[in-house]
Amino acid sequence: MITRMWRGWTRSDQADRYEQHYRSEVVVTLGQVAGFRGARLLRRTIGAETEFVSLTFFEDLDAVRSFAGSDYETAVIAEEACKVLIRFDELVCHYQTAVEA
To answer: Per the confidence metrics, is the pTM higher than 0.85?
Structure first.
């Protein structure tokens, strides 16, 4: 199992808008990828900004490439997301699952 981790930030007044985008667009798109195994969106607000951490789970790196392309370490950011994000990680991190309980 591979976990793909990405972070992005919005103004706090735009956080609900980004979360809705993730629910209605990102999850739906990922659900069509062979080898996709689930997603989690973490959220925390600190002052005027809200940070999001996206954790997506894939069977293997081939499944990640099916979603992200051959340059799979580059973040995939939809135009709608760019409208509300004030900054984001341009590169993502991939982790192999060592322990699952």
So the answer is: yes
